[in-house]
């Protein structure tokens, strides 16, 4: 039932994107940076048939062959007040040996913004379905090796209204998000992780309201008041995150393009959970899904509880519409906090974006935050062998957005996540480039007196890289190169770490109108630190045909 509900969530978002079509009349809008954006709708359903050969290079030398049939749709919709992008794909694999079993997968990503009241109220939504390799170290990595017993299917989505209104000199901004994330990992509990099993599912509620004025409109300084609420309910041992805050901010101009900013407020954060159910001998009970069973009759235990003053100070620099910098340092969660953003678009065809973040959430909350930050206009980048979503998207005017850092550790414990991620995208006409990289550090939080106590204070670290280069050779063919790497290190005793990497080259050729031929070669591998887990290295080759029932274009 859970699988059907999650797939329905993704299908519902595709329907939401379709609702935006009437608002997407054929016309042009000019963005604030001067770039011209075409309004309209492009919807491209397709079917695909491929033959794949996989040769294992390490630790064995098996060669398997299987057929891959797929159907999907890529849609991009842009209107005056609404925008949406959807890429959904269903695959069925037919193996020709016991080492290449049959199976099916669904993958997709979608983001939509539907204008309810023009330039004031909109309905925002996003969804993701993808496969990930779940390592014994507890890390989750996107890639074509995410098959078999060591893989999990991840579904995540959110929906909610967003408000932006202005009354005189006063601006009111706010949003509410309802998110849900599910990891289907079968009967899989990551070996070597002791008291921490794989995340199951969670529900997220997040709301924020901000009222403020700009400097020079009412007073020489800008003033704002903000209130926020976050709550996440994690099914694993009934974990709960509550975060409520209010704060006031002031912005002091010190030049035409520079403002000094500072804020102070009050925040109350509480994390709690129950303990695992134990058998007559005192051992934890593991359910049929491979996860710890919650002792529903036991008391709720506090894992983290802090309240009091929060503050930060920083600088905002915006010398032009194409460049902006915001950097803050302060105190939150009883310690020093750093966060900020940098965006630079040297021209209408390229952009660089950097974000430094710090927050407390579960795996589901992290996914909801990443989805809400994605643009409503993008081109999904997929692995040419497996068809899975990669860690980055190609946005409008060369912009690139990446979300690979949201995966990292897939443990069930709530954590404090701190890190940095950067993406660069460029569109040079016949050549497009998308690169993303980041570092994520997760410090887990567990209640004393529960099985999660062994996870309290343990740190998992993840460094990731994703890149795509596409070159149009002529009017009928193009060449694409993909690369990814992920370095994961776990602080749990005996868990170790892993390095996942891969490269691929794909050639696409339009044979006749709507029919495209594909040839791909790739090399993928996983190197594991634990001596109990073998490292893998394999190479794949694919030949296939795709027929598109609409405008041509490879997503």
Can you tell me about this structure?
This protein has 555 residues and is mainly beta. It has one domain. It is 5% helix and 62% strand. It contains 2 helices and 27 strands. The strands form 2 sheets. The protein has a 22-stranded antiparallel barrel. β4 (83-95) and β5 (103-117) form a beta hairpin. The two termini are 30 Å apart.
CA-based gyration radius: 24 Å
**Helix content range:** under 10%
Q: What's the overall average pLDDT, rounded?
A: 85
Largest sheet: 22 strands, antiparallel, barrel
Which descriptors apply to this entry?
555 residues; mainly beta; 2 helices; 27 strands; 62% strand; globular; disordered N terminus
Topology of this protein?
Layout: H1 2-19, E1 27-30, E2 36-58, E3 63-78, E4 83-95, E5 103-117, E6 121-134, E7 140-141, E8 151-167, E9 170-184, E10 201-213, E11 222-234, E12 239-253, E13 258-273, E14 301-320, E15 323-332, E16 335-347, E17 350-361, H2 363-373, E18 378-382, E19 389-395, E20 400-402, E21 414-427, E22 431-445, E23 459-472, E24 477-490, E25 497-512, E26 515-528, E27 536-548
Antiparallel strand pairs: 1-2, 2-3, 2-27, 3-4, 4-5, 5-6, 6-7, 6-8, 8-9, 9-10, 10-11, 11-12, 12-13, 13-14, 14-15, 15-16, 16-17, 17-21, 18-19, 19-20, 21-22, 22-23, 23-24, 24-25, 25-26, 26-27
């Amino acid at each position: 039932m859970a699988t059907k509900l999650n797939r329905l969530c993704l299908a519902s978002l595709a329907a939401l994107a379709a609702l935006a079509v009437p608002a997407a009349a054929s016309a042009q809008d000019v963005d604030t940076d001067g770039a011209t954006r075409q309004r309209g709708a492009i919807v491209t359903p397709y079917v695909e048939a491929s033959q794949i050969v996989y040769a294992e290079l390490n630790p064995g030398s098996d060669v398997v062959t299987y057929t891959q049939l797929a159907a999907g749709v890529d849609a991009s919709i842009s209107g005056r007040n609404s925008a949406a992008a959807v890429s959904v794909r269903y695959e069925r694999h037919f193996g020709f040996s016991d080492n290449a079993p049959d199976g099916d997968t669904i993958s997709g990503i979608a983001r939509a913004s539907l204008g309810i009241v023009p330039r004031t109220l909109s309905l925002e939504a996003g969804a993701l379905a993808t496969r990930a390799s779940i390592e014994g170290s507890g890390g989750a990595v996107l890639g074509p090796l995410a098959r078999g017993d060591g893989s999990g299917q991840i579904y995540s989505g959110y929906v909610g209204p967003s408000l932006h209104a202005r009354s005189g000199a006063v601006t009111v901004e706010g949003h509410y998000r309802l998110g849900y994330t599910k990891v289907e990992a079968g009967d899989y509990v990551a070996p070597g992780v002791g008291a921490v099993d794989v995340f199951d599912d969670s529900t997220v509620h997040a709301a924020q309201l901000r009222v403020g004025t700009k400097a020079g409109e009412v007073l020489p300084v800008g003033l704002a008041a903000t209130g926020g609420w976050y709550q996440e309910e994690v099914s694993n041992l009934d974990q709960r995150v509550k975060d409520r805050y209010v704060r006031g901010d002031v912005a002091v101009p010190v030049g035409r393009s520079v403002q000094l900013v500072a804020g102070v407020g009050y925040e109350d954060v509480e994390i709690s959970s129950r303990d695992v159910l134990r058998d007559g001998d005192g051992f934890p009970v593991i359910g049929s899904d491979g996860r710890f069973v919650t002792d529903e009759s036991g008391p709720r235990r506090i894992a983290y509880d802090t309240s009091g003053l929060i503050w930060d100070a920083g600088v905002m620099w915006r010398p032009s519409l194409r460049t902006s910098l915001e950097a803050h340092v302060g105190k939150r969660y009883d310690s020093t906090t750093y966060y900020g953003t940098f965006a630079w678009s040297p021209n209408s065809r390229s952009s660089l974006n950097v974000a430094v973040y710090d927050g407390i959430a579960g795996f589901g909350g992290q996914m909801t935050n990443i989805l809400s930050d994605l643009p409503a206009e993008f081109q999904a980048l997929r692995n040419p062998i497996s068809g899975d979503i990669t860690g980055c998207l190609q946005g409008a005017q060369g912009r690139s957005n990446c979300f690979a850092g949201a995966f990292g550790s897939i443990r069930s414990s709530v954590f404090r996540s701190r890190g940095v991620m950067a993406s660069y995208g460029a569109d040079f006409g016949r050549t497009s480039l998308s690169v993303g990289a980041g570092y994520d550090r997760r410090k887990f939080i567990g209640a004393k007196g529960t099985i999660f106590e062994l996870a309290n204070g343990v740190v998992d670290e993840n460094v990731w890289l994703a890149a795509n280069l596409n070159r149009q050779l002529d009017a009928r063919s193009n060449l694409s190169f993909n690369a990814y790497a992920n370095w994961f290190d776990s602080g749990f005793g005996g868990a170790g770490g892993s390095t996942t990497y891969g490269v691929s080259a794909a050639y696409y050729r339009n044979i006749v109108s709507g029919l495209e031929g594909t040839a791909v070669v790739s090399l993928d591998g996983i190197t594991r630190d634990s001596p109990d887990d073998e490292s893998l290295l394999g190479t794949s080759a694919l030949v296939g045909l795709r027929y598109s029932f609409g405008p041509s274009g490879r997503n």
